[in-house]
Amino acid sequence: MKDFPFLSVLTLLPLVGALVVAFIPRTKAELAKMVALGWSVLVLVLSIFMWVAYNVGGDRFQFRESYTWIPSWGANFTFAADGIALVMLMLIAVLFPVVILASWHDVDQSTRSAPAYFALLLSFEFTMIGVFAAADIFLFYVFFEIMLIPMYFIIGSFGSGQKQYAAVKFFLYSLVGGLFMLASVIGLWVLGGKTFDFTKLAEATASIDQNTARWLFLGFFVAFAIKAPFFPFHTWLPDSGGAAPAGAAALLVGVMDKVGTFGILRYCLSLFPEASRWFAPAAMVLAVIGIIYAALLAVGQNDLKRLVSYTSIAHFGFIGIGIFAFTTQAGTGAVLYMVNHGLATGLLFIVVGMFVARRGSSLVSDFGGAGKLMPVLAGVLFFAGLASLALPGTAPFVSEFLVLIGTFSTNKGYAVVATLGIVLAAAYVLWMIQRTTQGTLNPALTEVPAMSKDITLREKVVVAPLIALLLVLGFYPKPVTDVINPAVQATMQDVGVNDPAPTVEAGGKVGG
Amino acid sequence: MEPLKLPPIDYGALLPMLILFGAACLGVLVEVIVPRRARNAVQLSLALFAVVLSLVAVVMERGTRTITIGGAVAVDGPTLFLQGSILVLGGVSLLLIGERSIERGGVFVSQAAVTVGSQKDAQQASGQPGATEVYPLSVFALGGMLLFVAANDLLTMFVALEVFSLPLYLLCALARRRRLLSQEAALKYFLLGSYASAFFLFGVAFIYGFAGGIQLGVVHEAVANPQRSQVLLYVGLAMVSIGLLFKAALAPFHVWTPDVYQGAPTPVTAFMAACTKVAAFGALLRVLYVAFEGVRWDFQPILGGIAVLTMFIGAILAVTQTDLKRLLAYSSIANAGYLMVGVLALNDEGLSSTMFYLVAYGFSVLAAFAVISLVRDADGEATHLSRWAGVGRKSPLLAGIFTFILLAFAGIPLTSGFTSKFAVFGAAVDGGQTWLVIFGVITSMLLAFPYLRVVVLMWLSEPGETTPAVSIPGFLTSAVLGLGVLVTVALGVAPDALLDLTREASEFVR
């Protein structure tokens, strides 16, 4: 079981699925959907096996595989997963079947072909798994760039509103970041002795001079900050999230954006510890600005999908301060936040998508009192909203709490300001829910027949696993934190930060 | 009187060129002997046969490292690799040139001297079979290019330059459609090309004055000798460079490129974009690496500035283009800038990565122009960007191929465009030219936009009534498209074989 090549099979499986689905004739849309769903469940099953086979407390990198690729450059197909990558892979495996099922009718009205849409979703899964499973920087870069292509076509061909503008903006922003990273990758490769192996490079970077290392760090950081997105590189996300189909938007913020924070943890921190410490204050400031600024903008949004996108930028601010606080507690919180945010915001996007599909509009002002027509669906939206604002009992609370107390021990000021973000989160979520589902019924809604149809069986199947996971992890996050913790500890050791011991006042008169 | 002693000649090493020149002369005879009906098939077969034979000769000579006929020609690793590349790319271009099924009579005019717009002109436009002189002309050009990359003295290089340039000037003027544009392109190319040749020749004279010889090895030794006149050296080097930079389409000597690319018949444009680039950079590499390596600290910053200028001009002006052929012309200018980054690494890796880039780019650009030759309406090719809206809906396969090629131009991983960019940038960082790489990265970002705009037009715009039909490609064009895509994928996914080959070939004889 342990020797099974989990990561390469897991990576290639969705690609094969995408090819199969792509060759299904467009008249057989139902068949394409079934195959895509079945395939993504297969990926989920395989990743559950991997989760079981993972040795908690074992080596930092497990399931290591390496195959020669371009020997003259020292590039290999090297896969390996630490705890952080493992939980992200699980998140992907869980979200994709859910999103595919949630997108069941998304392309029915479109003139575009349904098999193409589901093939794009599966090829997106391929690039996502690849980017988290890669332990060779060249391979990582390849996945980092090609993941743009399926999402570009999903937004551009199947989106709504200003989809062309959003698709191009999405592509160009990410490509610009990627090219900055390319410059750093080349520099790292030349200075690190012509190898791309993450472990070897991590050893080699110790001898790179400080100034160069800071430049290299910056190239990586800009790429990841755009991807995450951190303020002020965030402007592409509301456009993309607003224009993408709801399911794809859930993947965009639920999974793809995590590549940014994952990259910071894996590549920036471990490869350039000194530079990371040097840049940390700036990164913290950006993260805190992101929390407050995005939350304020979210309050003012009238478009549901854009609103959720802004909330997600605010949440990424929390992840950012968690990473750069340099304590194991905050780091663990940040990684846990990455998982929980994927579940919570994913759920929120999917439910919002259900509302939008019924109403045919994503404007908040087009709703109002919708809960009277669809009490159950409104309830689900309410739950998703509460999870998103990190209500105790839901999973995001645990991670937000960990981030804040972990940050407080080293950076009190940032933690205090960030806490304001929680208040704003309550404002934008609750106000959004109030304006859409509560209050007097908007008479226009009764004229839309779909609006009086409450949650269907398919939709129940879609939201149930996410709600269950959010509740379970809210009360019992231990299985996940056990996996994350050693990996975060190892990363913090790379950075060379020792957790501050609990301090007692000098000459303490505890208990007098 | 001392009897004249002929230098020893290694005919084996010269065989590839001899085959091509012989075949070209034979082609001229075919024009006279073979009846008109059969001429196209005979000429195409003859040209292809010669190219294949010549390629076989190159492969057989792969171990040769020699300087022959009195130091005029050097046959070494880079020579053979570049000759092989020119032959392969040239063979593929010949397929495009030979395509006759898309348009009645082919894309070449039957009689170039007929007055444009006259009744006779209308007649020949409506479907008279095109001129078959294009084949011997192309083969002459290929032969000249082979000599150009092998030339070991500056005069031989000059002769080769003329041998491959003159046929190209003529070929540019032979478009069946938009004949005025085509003739204007040819004239422009000819005039500017002549200036460039004159500069080159003048530079050779200065170098001769400086070194007392024109062989690259002699120049190399003279450069190492500080006693000689530095003025002659630098003026000579500058003028020779201008001639070469013109052919390679580097700024500020690039101005001919968009007009010529647009006006020339598309197969000829493809031929120029793929093969001329290899020849020009091949000669540039040899001159800089073999003769002037000793003054690298002096020319590196200047040529570096030219590379940066080229990348910026290519990238920025590509954004503003509304004609696809012009867009690709500016993109080829920008690519010349990236190639220059590789050249300026001035180490073995620079040499091998530049050669890799040339092959990779050549195949992609051939496929790109093959696609352009297929999207047409009643007036010939529809190259205006607005006409490409919605092509993806009408013919997804062709649009898919073009999208892939454009992504390769944009340098997305798993395409040859990425691997080749990585190779030249890596070499440049290794050679201490990090600043060039930084500008290279910045311009790559700018350059992504025009490519993406075409992709958006093809896939995300609704097809309009004016969206032209896509012609069913004939066998020859399909072969070019298939080869182009295949090589672009192969060099993106598994570049190792070619990387090794370029590495083994990366040593000049002096």
UniProtKB/TrEMBL annotation, chain A:
- Residues in a coiled coil are none
Domain of life, per UniProt, equals Bacteria
One GO molecular function term?
NADH dehydrogenase (quinone) (non-electrogenic) activity
Give compartment(s).
Endomembrane system; Membrane
What's the protein's topology in the membrane? Multi-pass membrane protein
Q: Does the keyword Membrane apply?
A: yes
Task: Kindly report the protein's main subcellular placement as a broad class.
Answer: membrane
Q: What is its EC number?
A: 1.6.5.9
List the InterPro entries: NADH_Q_OxRdtase_chainM/4 (IPR010227), NADH_UbQ_OxRdtase (IPR003918), ND/Mrp_TM (IPR001750)
Q: Which residues cross the membrane?
A: 6-24, 36-57, 77-102, 114-132, 138-158, 170-192, 212-231, 278-300, 307-328, 334-357, 369-393, 413-433
- Every NADH:quinone oxidoreductase/Mrp antiporter transmembrane domain range: 134-423
Name the UniProt key words of this record, in alphabetical order. Membrane, Oxidoreductase, Transmembrane, Transmembrane helix
Q: Which family does it belong to?
A: Belongs to the complex I subunit 4 family.
Q: What is this protein called?
A: NADH-quinone oxidoreductase subunit M
From TrEMBL, chain B:
Transmembrane annotation, as ranges: 12-34, 41-60, 80-98, 134-151, 187-211, 231-256, 268-289, 301-320, 358-375, 396-415, 435-460, 472-494
Q: InterPro entries given for it?
A: NADH-Q_OxRdtase_suN/2, ND/Mrp_TM
What Enzyme Commission number(s) apply to this enzyme?
7.1.1.-
Q: Which Pfam families match?
A: Proton_antipo_M
Q: NADH:quinone oxidoreductase/Mrp antiporter transmembrane domain spans which residues?
A: 151-446
Q: Which reaction does it catalyse?
A: a quinone + NADH + 5 H(+)(in) = a quinol + NAD(+) + 4 H(+)(out)
Question: Topology versus the membrane, per the UniProt entry?
Answer: Multi-pass membrane protein
Top enzyme class of this protein? translocase
Where is the protein localized?
A: Cell membrane; Endomembrane system; Membrane
User: Which terms are listed as keywords in the entry?
Assistant: Cell membrane, Membrane, NAD, Quinone, Translocase, Transmembrane, Transmembrane helix, Transport
Coarsely, its chief localization is membrane
User: Which HAMAP family does the UniProt entry name for this protein?
Assistant: NDH1_NuoN_1
> Can you state the subunit structure given in the record?
NDH-1 is composed of 14 different subunits. Subunits NuoA, H, J, K, L, M, N constitute the membrane sector of the complex.
Q: In UniProt terms, what function does this protein have?
A: NDH-1 shuttles electrons from NADH, via FMN and iron-sulfur (Fe-S) centers, to quinones in the respiratory chain. The immediate electron acceptor for the enzyme in this species is believed to be a menaquinone. Couples the redox reaction to proton translocation (for every two electrons transferred, four hydrogen ions are translocated across the cytoplasmic membrane), and thus conserves the redox energy in a proton gradient.
Assigned protein family: Belongs to the complex I subunit 2 family.
Q: Which NCBIfam families match?
A: NDH_I_N, PRK05777.1-4
Q: Report the protein name in the record.
A: NADH-quinone oxidoreductase subunit N
Organism of origin is Actinoplanes sichuanensis
